[in-house]
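Schema walkthrough. Field components (list of strings):
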Amino acid sequence: MRTNINAPMALLAAFFMYSCSQPAPSAQTQASAPANQAPKWGMVIHTGAGNFTLAGIAERKDAMQAAMNEALMAGYRVLAGGGASLDAVQATIVILEDSPLFNAGKGAVFTHEGTNELDAAIMDGATMKAGAVAGLKRIKNPILLARLVMEKSPHVLMAGAGAEAFAKQEGVDFVDQKYFYTDRAWKTLQDELAAEKKKAAQTEDHHGTVGAVALDQHGNLAAGTSTGGLTNKRFGRIGDSPIIGAGTYANNQSCAISSTGIGEFWIRYTVAHDICARVQYTHVSIQAAADAVVQGELKPVGGEGGVIGLDAHGNVMMSFNTTGMGRGYVGEDGKPAIMFTEHDGQ
Ligand code: ASP
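Field assembly_structure (string):
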């Protein structure tokens, strides 16, 4: 079942109605449409996957939806004005980083030691250039520094003190660690520490990482991801988000992907690149490629999470093996669609 990014809302509504009458699918997949048309521009975002329900996020859902709409529309305006997918991805992610609601920038989760360490990456599918940063402690918007690593340094990935020294040189905004404090992220750490002490199951609050992919009017793809990582991670741990080919990837020859989930699996399975390689070399749809990896490879081994993507034709992909993944897209019609659980938009 596939839908084009600019599919008329009527078609979408018909699709939703069809889906609601079906038994819940075991794989959380999202529709996308025939790839035999001219590229259609647009963008897709995620705000993290996890085993949550609508009831579980009821208190925050409206605020999250409003922030996601604002972020999507910031990217949409760049694309509608003929701007670059890279700029759309950046504009969208900055808004999500500045919100305390998501595990990126302001709302970053805490390490085991009670500190915040942020990772981010951005990639340009037209040039295959990429920039990434990891283990940042004082950078307000990691995605902006990732972009600068791509454009103003000879490197792809910079970490820790060296990345922050580069940030100083480039005049990037610094904040005190206190800036990243939110009650919710602190409480999640306390719950995880308590569960660890009792050797009980860890909480399932993995959601919150943000990501965006875009296809612009010139046919160029871009992807970006920003995260505080996993609650209770050891200091120095780096996840998949800043690892090109694992959490983030864009290539005009195939697709653009941003991921969320337990990063260790994404790194070992080189998830983002694997999906794009399947699209490029085996000519399967982006949705089929993502499902094969997320549902077929990762789920059986406990690799919880999901991905969003766009192919070079503007086909939208969303795939996750948890009960929820905050996600949304907007196409040429400028009407954003936002979803949270496996039951939305199926
Ligand atoms: N993938 C991120 C990491 O492992 C976390 C997440 O997406 O929630 O750092």
